[in-house]
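WARN retry 2 of 3 for item q-0093 after timeout on previous attempt; input resubmitted unchanged.
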Amino acid sequence: MSLVKLPDTTLGKATWLLSVVVVVFAVVLHYFDDPDPVKYTSMAEDMKTLEENFRQQNKSCFILGASGETGRLLLRELLERNIFSKVTLIGRRQLTFEDKAYENLVQEVVDFEKLDDYAAAFQGHDVGYCCLGTTRAKAGADGFVRVDHDYVLKSAELAKSGGCTQFHLESSRGADKNSNFLYLKVKGQVEADIEALGFDRYSIYRPGVLLVDRQESRPSEWLARKFFGALSTVCTTSMSIPVPVLTKAMVSNTLLQPEQKTEILENKAIASLGMSAGK
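OK item q-0093 returned
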């Protein structure tokens, strides 16, 4: 008889333990949660009008980091919504696209170590999107700082000098120039340094864990994505976001008029805007 009851007892303990873990984690998430974002009502209908008005202004844009996961999906979103008369990719190599939707793209190949020699590539754009970045594991500490701070800041400087008035930066949740963690410190520092350039409009996006199947293997990120992906199916958190929602929010936000020159969109606000615009 005891051999029959053992599985039920073990299962009961496991279920109880899992319930406790879920409750504790939910409480922790609530404590560290982002403030409630602005509510975007009737966004889908309004967005069509905003897109058409923006389209008539005949503006151009550039994307830094179009070969990465966020940049790639941002490019697709921009082309699908067709709000710019010209889209330029600025990167270290030429990208290949098979779809005809990409045939009118302009590509500028630059050496990020000698960006001053490529100042012309940053001239004549109204809006800039920066999704450029690497990891410490991939590039080392010095390489990470060089890419995520130096390359990004220099590109912003050249864009500003070239006439760009609106700059959108993909940053990270928790970015803080005073942080003791290198990743968050660098992200926070580049946010502040770009703000000092004085763009007419500067939008900073601080997403949490990006939910996407990366083309390159990053075990720790893969595990985090699986965890937060599963969690997002049962509750909304400020800790993660699907990349398509992020890119949809970035494009939609381009069409809106913020109250201040510099705005910071935390993960929850990004999700609210991205999902509302997509309805």
